[in-house]
Amino acid sequence: MYRLRPHSPQRTNPTQPRAIGGTDKQMADNLKIIGIQVKNFKRIELMEVEIDPNGSLITIGGENAEGKSSFLDALFCALSGIPRSLTNPVREGEESAHIKVTIGNGQEVKYRVLRSFSKDSPPTIRVYDENNAQFNNGSEVLKDILGGIGIDPVAFLSKQPIEQRDDLAKLVGLNLETFDAQIDAARAEEKQHEQYQKTLEARTS
Question: According to the model, what pLDDT value does residue 151 have?
Fold first, then answer.
């Protein structure tokens, strides 16, 4: 789960400065993942997915061992980096792998993310704008586009409910400290009422 926002830093091959129409918030609200290509990653030999930018729900289905978890891992790795638990992302029998993620505003492509893996060298990350110009620092640009927030869906499901709540609140930028303080105050007041009731019952018995 990701919150996307626009970014406009220096590029490796800049042409003309890119103007962003509308406010950053309006554009961020419209940014969505609209395409994913996975090649030679874990169980997946080749998978290409186009996503309807007008939709709000994506279902990933299939039989056991058909690559559902590999697909989710690929998306997470492309946008957030490789988790320590993933020691060998390259499909068995292959020398390299890559994941391409296309991010757009409706049907219009705004960013392309390319995460590449090799058995003989460290992984690389490249981020391109809509004109196919590469940004100087792909990882920092990607963090900025994502708002610095990403959730591993597999790890999220294994967390306790209170931890899931905190992750989701952070994802949408919601500060729960005020709500938590109000809840604590209500519980303390309830406890006082219970103690007062017990005192009254003891006096009348």
Answer: 61
- Give tens-digit pLDDT for 18-62: 333 334 444 444 778 888 999 999 989 998 888 877 766 677 777
User: What type of residue sits at position 63?
Assistant: E
Full-model pTM: 0.59
Q: Which residue has the tokens 């620092």?
A: 137
- Find how far residue 170's CA is from the centre of its chain: 12
E strand segments, the chain: 31-41, 44-50, 96-105, 108-118, 121-129
Find, among 163, 162, 153, 127, the residue nearest to 142 by Cα: 127
Residues 109 and 129: their CA atoms lie apart, in Å, by 8
Could you tell me if 91 and 43 are in contact, meaning their C-beta atoms sit under 8 angstroms apart? yes
